[in-house]
Specification:
Layout lengths: L2 E11 L2 H11 L6 E5 L4 E8 L2 E8 L5 H9 L2 E9 L2 H10 L10 E2 L5 E5 L9 E5 L2
Parallel strand pairs: 1-4, 5-8
Antiparallel strand pairs: 1-5, 2-3, 3-4, 6-7, 7-8
The structure holds zinc ion.
Length: 134
């Protein structure tokens, strides 16, 4: 598959407002947008840096995946996303190689992206997302 670059690093936080202050006030990032992704039960804040982003993920539901992550491990890096040229081809290739996937088909992610997660058992414990966007 053709991986273009790191698309974003997803950080699970209890509060975008609180966690965002470090990135904006200290690091000089700008919060470009905050989007609700109802499918994932999160609000996502986008903090772009060159062709990548930091994404702050704040749960909107105590049963959502980010809330569960924080309950189990505390706040921190929750996933890393690689941008691929063609997500359909990438998924086909991964399936062909027997890689265990969380998403068999692409689904809608934040920022109009098509995304899919690879099972962390395949990646030494890192939740890896592949994504395609224009
Ligand atoms: Zn992501």
């Amino acid at each position: 598959m053709k991986v273009k670059h790191i698309d974003h690093i997803g950080i699970a936080v209890k509060s975008i407002e609180k966690a965002g202050k470090f990135y904006t006030d200290i690091m000089g990032f700008k919060i470009e947008n905050i989007e609700n992704v109802s499918d994932q039960k999160v609000n996502v804040a986008f903090l772009p840096i060159t062709d990548s982003e930091v994404e702050l993920l704040e749960s909107t539901d105590p049963d959502g995946p980010v809330a569960k992550y924080i309950n189990a491990r505390g706040e921190g890096i929750q996933h890393i996303a690689f941008r691929v040229e063609n997500i359909d081809e990438a998924l086909k290739e991964l399936k062909g190689k027997g890689v265990r996937l969380i998403d068999q088909e692409p689904r809608a992610g934040a920022g109009g992206a098509k995304i899919a997660f690879i099972h962390p058992k395949e990646t030494s414990g890192v939740l890896v997302e592949i994504c395609e966007r224009d």
